[in-house]
Design goal:
Blueprint lengths: L2 E8 L6 H6 L2 H14 L3 E6 L24 H6 L4 E3 L9 H14 L3 E3 L1 E2 L2 H4 L3 E5 L2 E9 L12 E2 L7 H9 L4 E7 L10 H12 L4 E5 L4 E7 L2 E7 L1 E3 L10 E8 L5 E9 L2 E4 L2 H18 L4 H12 L1 H8 L4 H9 L3 H6 L2 H12 L1 H16 L3
Parallel strand pairs: 1-2, 1-13, 2-3, 3-4, 7-9, 9-10, 10-12
Antiparallel strand pairs: 1-14, 5-8, 6-7, 11-12, 14-15, 15-16
C-alpha cells in the first residue's frame, strides 16, 4: 500500500527561519514526527510563502509572506516530495519571487505544482506511480489576488467551468485522485454551505479524497459517497499568530489502496511544532469527531454559517466599503448610526445586488481590478 503524508500550511517566519535553515529536523519537529515523516512513502505540504531574498510586495489585501530560501533545507531533510503552491501567498513577491521558489525547490529535489503563467500550466496535475498504483494530485485555490493574468504568474484557482472537468479527466488516467483545495474561512471550524457543495461535487466527478487547507485551524470531516472530505487541517508550521486555534493542527496519513485517512494531531512547540502528547491528542480528536457528528444534523451547517455571518456582519461590511479607518472610528463612537445614515437599506441592497448577480459582479470585479492596477 502507498502511505502518503499530507501536511497543512507551512510558512517559515523570522522566529524560526534560522533553525529551519540549519535543516536539523529533529530539533524542529521532534524525533516522533521525524519518524512519521521517514516512514511515509510520499510527503506533501502546502508551502504558503515565497522562498526568495527579493522584497517585491504584490498589491493585494492582507499580509505579505516571504521566507529565506535556505529554509528549504528543512523540507529537503524532512523528505518532502511535493509542495502545493496553489494558495494566496506564494505570489506575494511577484513573478520573480515565484520563480525563485520553484528553482529553490527543484535544486533540492522537491517537486511543486499549482502555479503557472496561464490556467493550463497552473492546473497541471501531479501524477506519479507507486508500485502498481497510479496516483494524482490536483491543487486548487480560492481566488485571492492570485489568478494568472496579463503575463503575471498565478495559481490554479477554482472555477466551476474548468475545475470539475479537470477532476473528471484526471481521474480517467489514474487509480487514485487527491484534491487539495486551499479554501475555507479563517478560524472557522466548519465548511460553509457552498464549500461543502463544491467538495461533494469534486467527489462526484471522480476525486477519491479531498482536503481543504487555508483556515489555519482544525475543522472537521465527512464521508460522502464512501469518500473522505477534510474541512480544515490547521497549520503544519506557521508561527505568525498566537491565536488558540492556530496552536494545533493535523497531519493526514492516507492509505491510497483502502482510502482510509488517519489524522495525526500536532501542536505548537514555541516557534516550532511537535507531535501532540496523548492527552492533547485525545482532546483534539474528540472535538474533531464532535464537529463531524454536528455536521450530520439536518440544517446545522446553514444555521452555524448564518450565526457566523451575523456575528461578523460589521467586519465584512466595513471591508466591502473599503475598511476606511476614519469612517470605522466615527461609526463606532456614533453607535453605528453613521453606517445607517450613509448606507440605508436601499444602498445596502445595491451592494448586495452587485455581489449576488453574476453579470454585475463580473463588471464590478473588472472595475476594482482597474483600481488595483493604477499607479500610486
Amino acid at each position: 500500500m502507498a502511505k502518503l503524508l499530507i501536511c497543512g500550511d507551512f510558512s517559515p517566519t523570522k522566529s524560526n527561519e534560522e533553525i529551519l535553515s540549519n535543516g536539523r529536523i529533529d530539533e524542529c519537529i521532534g524525533k516522533e514526527l521525524v519518524s512519521i515523516f521517514n516512514n511515509s512513502d510520499f510527503v506533501a505540504l502546502n508551502l504558503e510563502t515565497s522562498l526568495t531574498n527579493l522584497v517585491n510586495p504584490k498589491t493585494k489585501r492582507g499580509q505579505i509572506n516571504r521566507s529565506l530560501p535556505a529554509t528549504v533545507n528543512f523540507l529537503k531533510n524532512a523528505n518532502v516530495n511535493l509542495c502545493f503552491l496553489a494558495n494566496n501567498h506564494v505570489i506575494d513577491n511577484g513573478n520573480d519571487g515565484v520563480l525563485d521558489t520553484i528553482n529553490t525547490l527543484k535544486k533540492n529535489g522537491i517537486e511543486c505544482m499549482g502555479v503557472g503563467i496561464n490556467r493550463e500550466e497552473a492546473s497541471k496535475p501531479y501524477i506519479f506511480q507507486y508500485k502498481k498504483q497510479k496516483i494524482a494530485f490536483i491543487n486548487l485555490s480560492n481566488v485571492e489576488f492570485n489568478e494568472p493574468e496579463n503575463g503575471e504568474i498565478g495559481v490554479n484557482t477554482y472555477n466551476p467551468l474548468f475545475s470539475f472537468d479537470l477532476i473528471k479527466e484526471t481521474k480517467s488516467k489514474v487509480d487514485f485522485l487527491i484534491v487539495v483545495f486551499h479554501s475555507g474561512i479563517e478560524y472557522y471550524t466548519y465548511p460553509t454551505p457552498y464549500l461543502q457543495m463544491i467538495c461533494r461535487k469534486m467527489i462526484e466527478y471522480g476525486a477519491d479524497f479531498v482536503t481543504c487547507q487555508h483556515s489555519h485551524c482544525i475543522g472537521t470531516y465527512e464521508i460522502y459517497n464512501e469518500k473522505t472530505i477534510i474541512y480544515g487541517q490547521g497549520n503544519f508550521l506557521f508561527d505568525d499568530s498566537s491565536k488558540e486555534l492556530e496552536k494545533t493542527g493535523l497531519l493526514l496519513q492516507l492509505d491510497t489502496y483502502s482510502g482510509t485517512v488517519q489524522p495525526i494531531p500536532i501542536k505548537k512547540n514555541g516557534a516550532l511544532v511537535m507531535l501532540a502528547d496523548s492527552e492533547t491528542s485525545n482532546e483534539i480528536l474528540e472535538k474533531y469527531e464532535g464537529r463531524h457528528n454536528e455536521l450530520l444534523k439536518e440544517g446545522f451547517i446553514n444555521e452555524c454559517f448564518h450565526s457566523y455571518a451575523i456575528a461578523h456582519k460589521r467586519e465584512y461590511f466595513n471591508s466591502c466599503v473599503g475598511y476606511n479607518k476614519i469612517y470605522k472610528f466615527i461609526n463606532r463612537i456614533s453607535g453605528y448610526s453613521l453606517e445607517n445614515y450613509i448606507f440605508n437599506k436601499v444602498s445596502k441592497m445595491r451592494i448586495y445586488n452587485m455581489l449576488d448577480s453574476i453579470s454585475l459582479r463580473e463588471v464590478f470585479t473588472e472595475v476594482m481590478k482597474s483600481y488595483r492596477d493604477e499607479e500610486g
